[in-house]
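Hi C.,

You asked whether I'd gotten around to modeling the 150-residue construct. I have! Everything is below, sequence then structure, no commentary in between.
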Amino acid sequence: MDSASTFHPSEIVCIEHEEVRLYAEVIQLSETRPVCWLRPLLLVTLLSEEQSVACDVSALASSIPPLGRSLESERIHSMIDLREGADLLLPTALMRHALDVELIPLWSALHSLKPAAEGDRPIQNPLHSLTQRLWAAYPTIFESSEKKCS
């Protein structure tokens, strides 16, 4: 993961955990704690290596223009547009810079997604689920970001 001092407002960062990647825009860095205010943009779930071997290329991956396809885009299971959702405050130790080569194809596919109708919203919030999983997987990172503000 990258150092907090290398992040700047308006940059896109990625938080990876298991098969999930959260892409978010940096809004502001805390001056007193190693946390960052983020505006979530996109939540991508990848197929595991075993699942991607067993499956054909998903319809979503085939919607990515051929020039933007990569090995990673062939493993996309789902993409969720989070641009209308709530902002987050997360430790910078969990973040890395998003690479242009990974983000541009995803961004193209994101704009081709149809917005979810009000009744089509999932019962469980996938962003909430990810934050709970991050909290459980990295308790020391969250604890250290809380202690530094005292």
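If it helps when you're writing up: Helices lie at 49-54, 59-62, 100-112, 126-137, 139-147.

Thanks,
B.
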